[in-house]
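Progress against Task 2.4 (sequence-to-structure conversion) is shown through the following example record, which the project officer requested during the mid-term review.
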Amino acid sequence: MANTPTTSRGHSAKTLAAAGGLVVFAAVMLLVAGVLGICRGIMGIARDEVFVRTPHYIFQFDVTAWGWLHLIFGIIAVIVGAALFKAPLWGRIAGIFIAAVVILLNFLSLPYYPFWSLIAVAISGFVIWALCIISPADMR
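Structure tokens generated for the chain above:
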């Protein structure tokens, strides 16, 4: 076996390449989640009759306000997702934060749109995992 070059933390070049791929994966998934959040936000703002309301849900709120939240965080997710292609540290931190907020928003909207909410939670979970898998110091 040949010696594989490693970083100061002992990561191989293959590991760093995979980590770079995960950051690109997170960027693309954050862009997709952001665009879909924008679409969902527009739907909630324009026609709140599109969503079924659950009468006894403990977290009841106006669907139009919920639409604005999805629209705003969808736009932020697209901006952060685009920034992640250059993999700056602030982009990774913001990506983790935005993905966590998207998980929270989708949890709160489970009764209105359950299937998509679960998918969006899973996508955002993968984004957080991909951005946390390796330290930014090793990416240099």
